[in-house]
């Protein structure tokens, strides 16, 4: 199995729990990509998607890709799924502290300003898991619920109680629950 981790705005491939998850998955036998996406302070959707496609030109179902995101990585993955061509599919998508609406932050508006094609996104993976906290200072819990509803029956919605933005600032340098979820997908 293969995993592709999309980091948050202002982060990198090792920030928050991403580096820890990368290392743990490799030990478990996964092939793992956790790149530093360009211009992380002033990101553009186009450069992030170009980076993803440079690393993986085609997401073949037999490769059993698990796409994992934190925060801004969520809408980036949703846009990547919108770009999937016939024959491309991920095994699973896990969106941690993800969102799919304008949060009022100009630097990241380009990721969410266009409506999402939820039907096409839903066809891009066999399973979805949305994880949000009940006290995230940036993303309301209801946004996670809304995304899970838009993703339909293939989506499981999980609440991480009292976990803030599920990042380093909230004490998340390791994320065992996420690792367990990914291992169970295998």
Structurally, how many domains make up the residues? 1
- Mean pLDDT figure: 97
* Head-to-tail CA distance between termini: 7 Å
Biggest sheet: strands, sense, closure? 6 strands, parallel
Query: How does the overall form come out from the CA principal axes?
Result: globular
The strand line-up of the biggest sheet is: 2-1-3-4-5-6
Uncertain spans, ≥5 residues at pLDDT below 50? none
General description of the model:
The chain has 186 residues and is an alpha/beta fold. It has a single domain (2-185), classed as Rossmann fold (3-Layer(aba) Sandwich). Helix content is 31%, strand content 19%. It has six helices and six strands; from the N terminus they run βαβαβαβαβαβα. It has a six-stranded parallel β-sheet, sandwiched between helices. 41% of the residues are buried. The model has no long low-confidence stretch (mean pLDDT 97).
Q: In brief, what are we looking at here?
A:
This protein is α/β, with parallel strands linked by helices.
Blueprint (SSEs and pairs):
Blueprint: E1 2-6, H1 18-27, E2 31-33, H2 45-55, E3 65-70, H3 73-82, E4 90-96, H4 118-123, E5 125-133, H5 141-151, E6 155-160, H6 176-185
Parallel strand pairs: 1-2, 1-3, 3-4, 4-5, 5-6
């Amino acid at each position: 199995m293969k995993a592709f981790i999309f980091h948050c705005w202002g982060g990198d491939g090792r920030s928050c729990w991403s580096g820890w998850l990368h290392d743990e998955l490799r030990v478990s036998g996964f092939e793992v990509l956790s790149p530093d996406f360009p211009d992380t302070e002033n990101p553009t959707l186009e450069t992030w998607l170009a980076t993803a496609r440079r690393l993986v030109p085609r997401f073949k179902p037999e490769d059993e890709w698990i796409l994992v995101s934190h925060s801004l990585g969520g809408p980036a993955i949703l846009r990547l799924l919108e770009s999937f061509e016939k024959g491309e599919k991920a095994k699973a998508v896990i969106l941690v502290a993800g969102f799919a609406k304008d949060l009022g932050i100009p630097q990241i508006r380009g990721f969410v300003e266009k409506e999402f094609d939820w039907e096409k996104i839903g066809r891009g993976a066999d399973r979805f898991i949305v994880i949000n906290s009940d006290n995230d200072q940036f993303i309301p819990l209801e946004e996670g619920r809304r995304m899970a509803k838009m993703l339909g029956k293939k989506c499981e919605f999980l609440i991480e109680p009292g976990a803030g933005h599920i990042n380093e600032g909230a004490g998340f340098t390791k994320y065992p629950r996420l690792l367990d979820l990914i291992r169970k997908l295998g």
